[in-house]
Amino acid sequence: MIMHCLGASAKKIVLTQKLKIDIRSEITTLNMMRRTVIQASLCAIMSVCSWLSPLSYGGEHASTAMPEDLMAAFEAKNYAAVESLLNNCENFAVAYMQLFDCVACGQQADDAELRALLRNSLPQSVKDELLVRICRYNPPKFNFVRADVMEQLKLSFVKELLANNADIQAEQNRSVAYDAAFYGEYELMFYLIECGADVNYVTVGGDTILGTIILANARNDAVRICKRLLRYEPNLNIGMPQPLFFAIDSHSVELADMLIAAGASLDWVIPRYGITLRQYAREMKVNIGY
């Protein structure tokens, strides 16, 4: 009996010690999670700060603070001074995009004068860089300008640059049309494709223009946009995954049938699953007509 009690006590001690170890492990895990959350929160706060003051912080909109005299001339609509100051900036394209950022944020309603500066004899490299920067421009999250208005603003500047011989193919291994598609600016995208942007561009991650459109709009107006894009005869069998995968995955029978009719292959094997798109359609119960 005594031995039995001692044995039970020993078991309790072992279990207690194991429980303590488990608790310590849980506390360590929680502390690590808490530290990760705090770090992520700090990063988010810094990101918000950079959005709220795009001219003072680095990042997408500006890499250096805008010179005060340039900003003063711009706010006073003294465009002769603006042009002179821009030409004396260390990086014309960066300074110009800071002014573009002001226009895009609604701080300066009249964009015609700023656009007119593109008609001057800028170096080819500056025009090419500005074309890429404007196509890739993403307004701050707090911007209340409507998306269609923003697209038309970008389109007007792009047209001005292309009219002044900016090279749409200047940036190798990149398509400005993909940037427009990524931001859902399809009129800008079509205009760029018509002007020679690569409709078959594939990102390092395997994304394509067509796949990006379907992924973002599968349940909205992807059929209408893709039907229009097919006029430019894009390669439907490139990308990872291929565009047809997104159509099947979103259960869009009309879109899938349209892509197959245009030449998309059902025999492509999905690396992740090891099955063809035809088999995947059956698994997903998507009753495509082929």
Descriptive account of the structure:
Helix content is 59%, strand content 1%. By secondary structure, it is mostly helical. It has a domain at 1-52. A hairpin with a 4-residue loop joins strand 1 and strand 2. Helix 8 (176-182) runs parallel beside helix 10, helix 10 runs parallel beside helix 12 (243-249) and helix 12 runs antiparallel to helix 13. It is elongated, with a radius of gyration of 28 Å.
Short description:
The protein has 14 helices and 2 strands; from the N terminus they run αααααααααααααββα. The protein has helices at residues 2-52, 68-75, 79-87, 92-104, 112-116, 124-135, 147-163, 176-182, 186-194, 209-217, 222-229, 243-249, 253-261, 277-283, and strands at 269-270, 275-276.
Percentage of residues assigned to helices: 55-70%
* Total beta strand runs: 2
- Tell me the strand order in the biggest sheet: 1-2
The largest β sheet comes out as:
2 strands, antiparallel
Q: What would the average pLDDT be, to the nearest integer?
A: 78
DSSP helical segment count: 14
- Rg from alpha-carbon coordinates: 28 Å
- Structural class estimated from helices and strands: mainly alpha
Uncertain residue segments = 1-6, 10-15, 27-63
| Strand and helix order | HHHHHHHHHHHHHEEH
Question: What is the general shape?
Answer: elongated
Proportion in β-strands: under 5%
* Cα end-to-end separation: 78 Å
